[in-house]
């Protein structure tokens, strides 16, 4: 005998909730959302799940951490033995107590720290995927800015978090932050005074960082994550190019029940990996450093990886200082700590708008680019990553010197040269590779795959038999937009009057030429027909510009 009472109760509860909140309409709308299936889309999910783990583990740690810089003497009967009788802040003492006396405390600390590192790694990798595939194009420019803001908030969350234990390592990081703040002309001293509540280190920085770390930044991250996900739903998901995929559809699986089950399982995978890392891989053992003391500064004092590029920039900058009007401007701190990061971050945030301007493209895009088809964008991304890696290595120049028995001065000068030469070389070689891959695609479309079969005709001629591409393979190689440099109006109008805004248009045109002057045109139908008939397709006029495949995008998007 079966009963429907539980189902009736459940249905009544759902109906009660729906009538008062309208949740049924939202669930129905979300259930019909289709998401494409590709592993790279999991990078954003890893960031989200890492943040959930951060909230869970951080809530546990908050109950035991004491955000106070008041001095105490560590008890004689507490672990570790090396810290017994040492004068330290209550923040550092509570960190030791959490690690050695609270059951599961050290595990939670290490899970929290690894989750923070994974959170930043997944955000950066996710942004790289979005950048290289052009997922930031219209209508997602604002969502790119939201994601960029989340990255900045992640940096601030990480810095404020690993500064809380008040150990030697975190104290050195705060000392650097104080120096960078003071390097700003005119307002620097006031900024440092406001931040630390007086002279460094003061007595207020740990309580203030604690409030920022557990309240302000998490609230902002939650708000921006919600906005980010809302925009993903509103704009629909991007998808990789392929047959049947266009800017007007999404090919994939529905949210319910497929992706709900996948996402739920993947959350526990991420949680399990972080728990395994937290239980087996030691990290941030603050008792090895001791409480903060400004006098000991030794080799091996590096921040977490996502802040290491700033450390590297500070180490590479020569000790230049300018004295203007009796005021000393520490160029050696101001430029690497404020100016260069400010320029790079601003350019990164505005890049979607810059590319839209130089391409003249105002159409919506939901199908992603192949990185080879946008060589300048791909080259710029590789150049940025090259500079980042060089700065990260420069931030560890002392460890490289001690481990490999090398001169730290030679290492520093090598990285100084590489910082300027490496990104340029990375951009150049990446651009050439992308153009070469595009030419290879042209050859494949025109002639097909080499089969290794040689055929001899009756007249004695030998030819190699090529295997034609399938429609899917051909679509992938010809179904993309080709941008050309901007065309602008003449400098003077018909009456000989100089046109207003010509100088600005000229600058944008030069930038557009940098982006799109070197390009490889996709194969046209005429070229393909000539190649298949063994004709001289290079001699054909390029008048026939119809797409090779029905519904494929046009090659010229200037008038879209």
TrEMBL record:
Stretches for region Disordered: 530-560
UniProt keyword list: Cell membrane, Electron transport, Heme, Iron, Membrane, Metal-binding, Respiratory chain, Translocase, Transmembrane, Transmembrane helix, Transport
Spans through the membrane: 46-66, 111-132, 144-164, 210-234, 255-283, 322-353, 374-394, 406-430
EC numbers for this chain: 7.1.1.8
Source organism, top-level taxon: Bacteria
Cofactor(s) listed: heme
Positions with biased composition (Basic and acidic residues): 533-548
Location(s), subcellular: Cell membrane
Molecular function as annotated in GO: metal ion binding; oxidoreductase activity; quinol-cytochrome-c reductase activity
Span of domain Cytochrome b/b6 C-terminal region profile: 242-436
The reaction(s) this protein catalyses: a quinol + 2 Fe(III)-[cytochrome c](out) = a quinone + 2 Fe(II)-[cytochrome c](out) + 2 H(+)(out)
Annotated Gene Ontology cellular component terms: plasma membrane
Protein's membrane topology: Multi-pass membrane protein
InterPro entries per UniProt: Cyt_b/b6_C, Cyt_b/b6_N, Cytb/b6-like_sf, Di-haem_cyt_TM
PANTHER family cross-referenced by the UniProt entry: CYTOCHROME B (PTHR19271)
UniProt protein name: Cytochrome bc1 complex cytochrome b subunit
Source species of the chain: Flavimobilis soli
Source organism phylogeny: Bacteria, Bacillati, Actinomycetota, Actinomycetes, Micrococcales
């Amino acid at each position: 005998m079966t009963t429907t009472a539980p189902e009736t109760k459940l249905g009544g509860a759902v109906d009660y909730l729906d009538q008062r909140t309208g949740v049924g309409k939202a669930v129905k709308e979300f259930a019909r959302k289709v998401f494409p299936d590709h592993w790279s889309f999991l990078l954003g999910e890893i960031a989200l799940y890492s943040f959930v783990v951060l909230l869970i583990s951080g809530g546990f740690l908050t109950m035991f951490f004491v955000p106070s810089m008041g001095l105490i003497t560590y008890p004689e009967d507490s672990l570790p033995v090396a810290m017994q009788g040492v004068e330290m802040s209550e923040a550092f003492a509570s960190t030791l107590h959490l690690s050695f006396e609270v059951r599961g405390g050290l595990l939670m600390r290490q899970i929290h720290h690894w989750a923070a590192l994974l959170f930043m790694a997944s955000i950066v990798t996710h942004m790289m995927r979005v950048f290289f595939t052009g997922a930031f194009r219209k209508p997602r420019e604002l969502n790119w800015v939201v994601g960029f803001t989340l990255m900045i908030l992640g940096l601030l969350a990480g810095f404020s978090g690993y500064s809380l234990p008040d150990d030697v390592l975190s104290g050195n990081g705060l000392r650097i932050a104080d120096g960078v703040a003071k390097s700003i002309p005119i307002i620097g001293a006031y900024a440092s005074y406001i931040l630390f509540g007086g002279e460094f280190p003061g007595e207020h920085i740990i309580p203030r960082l604690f409030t920022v770390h557990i309240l302000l930044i998490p609230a902002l991250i939650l708000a921006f994550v919600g906005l980010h996900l809302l925009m993903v739903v509103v704009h629909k998901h991007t998808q990789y190019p392929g047959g049947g995929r266009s800017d007007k559809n999404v090919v994939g699986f529905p949210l319910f029940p497929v992706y709900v089950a996948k996402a739920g399982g993947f959350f526990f995978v991420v949680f399990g990996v972080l728990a395994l890392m937290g239980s087996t891989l030691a990290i941030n053992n603050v008792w090895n450093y001791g409480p903060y003391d400004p006098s000991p500064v030794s080799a091996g004092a590096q921040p977490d990886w996502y802040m290491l590029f700033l450390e590297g920039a500070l180490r590479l900058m020569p000790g230049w200082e300018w004295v203007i009007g009796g005021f000393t401007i520490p160029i050696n701190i101001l430029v690497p700590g404020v100016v260069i990061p400010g320029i790079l971050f601003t350019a990164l945030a505005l890049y979607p708008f810059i590319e839209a301007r130089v391409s003249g493209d105002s159409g919506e895009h939901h199908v992603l680019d192949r990185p080879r088809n946008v060589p300048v964008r791909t080259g710029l991304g590789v150049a940025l990553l090259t500079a980042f890696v060089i700065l990260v290595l420069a931030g560890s120049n002392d460890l490289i010197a001690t481990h490999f028995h090398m001169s730290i001065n030679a290492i520093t000068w090598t990285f100084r040269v590489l910082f300027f030469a490496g990104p340029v070389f990375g951009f150049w070689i990446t651009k050439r590779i992308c153009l070469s891959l595009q030419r290879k695609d042209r050859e494949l479309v025109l002639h097909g795959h080499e089969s290794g079969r040689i055929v001899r005709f009756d007249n004695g001629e030998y030819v190699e038999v090529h295997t034609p591409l399938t429609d899917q393979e051909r679509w992938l190689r010809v179904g993309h937009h080709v941008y050309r440099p901007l065309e602008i109006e003449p400098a003077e109008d018909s009456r000989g009057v100089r046109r207003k805004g010509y100088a600005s248009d000229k600058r944008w045109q030069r930038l557009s030429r940098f982006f799109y002057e070197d390009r490889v045109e996709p194969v046209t139908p005429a070229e393909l027909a000539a190649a298949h008939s063994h004709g001289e397709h290079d001699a054909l006029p390029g008048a026939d510009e119809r797409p090779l495949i029905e519904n494929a995008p046009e090659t010229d998007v200037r008038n879209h």
